[in-house]
Amino acid sequence: MSGTDQHPILPVVLCGGTGSRLWPLSREGFPKQFWPLLSQNSMLQDTVARAQGPGFSSPMVICNEAHRFLVAEQLHANGMQDAKIVLEPVARNSAPAIAAAAVLAHEADPDAVLWLMAADAAITDTAALNAALARAAAAARAGRIVAFGMKPTSPETGYGYIEAGAPLAGLEGVAAIQSFVEKPDLATARTYLEGGRHLWNSGMFVATAATLLAELERLAPEVLSTVRAAVAGATRDLDFVRLDPVIFAGAPDISIDYAVMEKTGQAAVVPASLGWSDVGSWASLWEVSPKDAGGNVTQGKVELYDARNCYVRSEGMLTGVVGLRDAVVVVTDDAVLAMHRDRSQDVKKLLEQLKANGHKEATEHRRMYRPWGHYEGLIQGSRFQVKKISVKPGAKLSLQKHFHRAEHWVVVNGTAIVERDDERIMLRENESIYLPLGCVHRMENPGKIPLTLIEVQVGSYLGEDDIVRFEDTYGRT
């Protein structure tokens, strides 16, 4: 976006979704916004990159507290060292998250123009986006809350719709909103496509902090009063603003559409064609991805024979597909999904079934990310398990002990410094150490390359909750 003599636009990225319809890749522990689905960057990184440069201030990201270090690491990798990361202790839908952003922005500048967007949408036409954003910002400065309405290209039943009303005088390319419409059935969606008045609701909004707070005060006072108190009780450490967990948990669980947009007289819409998709399902990911001559999209170690219009993705093992049409096959290291592409919306129902039947793969990946790096389960048996642990350069684990297990560490790459009770020991490649049950210990990587080690746990209980932390660089308890 080109520079302007107006206040810069504040990008506010809502990063709390779980992307359940993109299971088994997207899971609660590592949802779709952190995956590189359409480029070499994650969807969060692509989203933030669209809002950098002249005319924009440093972004604000609202995220789940459990994902705080993922967000910080990916923003830093994008060169965003000064982003404000606001932590939701619990998910309370979009209205409380947006209220928190408005309260924090208003403290610095009541006239700040907020561009509110999800972290996990695709946009291919950046020039059209910037033009639409300029129109929306002008309307926002005139006191409007502006939605981005995407001109539909198909009778989509997975999106909500906005019915555009009359053009607004003095605001080029901006219309009043006649109504908001829930996700329609196919027949209704076809009439919307043919009628030309209905637009996909993208979930992006532009408004000033002052306008948002005024309308929240009038239309959703309980949301605003609770969030104000949670912001007043917030603590700040490292890159993070931690909203008061007890107070924020009491905020109503409601979307900004229901809380404000469907009630306010200030709502407006900018119709646009941006190459937008919410990438909410495997079918929509197939639609927006480059295809081969047979209409197939492949990712990873994949071989196709006589396949047409398929989406096939492997995160590791060789995956072969023969003779399928309109199929989705997704392979991770611990789960496989195979279905007709038309059934993409039903993945959420499958996920509910997996949770009900106690499958941990419903929510957790084999690889689990931590602020210091990650670990990956390799083998598990009766009273033992084996993990591979990777520690980033300069990072360290917490000072801790366990009541039910002993551990053996073997360094396979890099250098480790290990604290074991009163000892401090350096380990190099192919060296090992034994940590008996109950000893106080920690590990750090003093080197310039990642530290990789194999951990063998032996004991009567091997759960991750068997841990007592005495000291932690990252503020965990």
UniProtKB/TrEMBL annotation:
Keyword field contains Transmembrane: no
MF term (GO), any: mannose-6-phosphate isomerase activity
Superkingdom classification of source: Bacteria
Residues annotated as domain Nucleotidyl transferase: 11-292
InterPro entries: GMPP_N, Man1P_GuaTrfase/Man6P_Isoase, Man6P_isomerase-2_C, ManC/GMP-like_b-helix, Mannose-6P_isomerase_type2, NTP_transferase_dom, Nucleotide-diphossugar_trans, RmlC-like_jellyroll
One Pfam family here: ManC_GMP_beta-helix
Keyword vocabulary terms for this entry: GTP-binding, Isomerase, Nucleotide-binding, Nucleotidyltransferase, Transferase
Gene3D superfamilies: Jelly Rolls, Spore Coat Polysaccharide Biosynthesis Protein SpsA, Chain A
The keyword Transport is assigned to this record: no
Catalytic activity: alpha-D-mannose 1-phosphate + GTP + H(+) = GDP-alpha-D-mannose + diphosphate
SUPFAM superfamilies from the UniProt entry: Nucleotide-diphospho-sugar transferases (SSF53448), RmlC-like cupins (SSF51182)
EC numbers for this chain: 2.7.7.13
All copies of domain Mannose-6-phosphate isomerase type II C-terminal, residue ranges: 358-472
CDD domains: cupin_PMI_typeII_C, GDP-M1P_Guanylyltransferase
Top enzyme class: transferase
Residues annotated as domain MannoseP isomerase/GMP-like beta-helix: 306-354
PANTHER family: MANNOSE-1-PHOSPHATE GUANYLYLTRANSFERASE
Protein family per UniProt: Belongs to the mannose-6-phosphate isomerase type 2 family.
The name this protein goes by in its record: mannose-1-phosphate guanylyltransferase
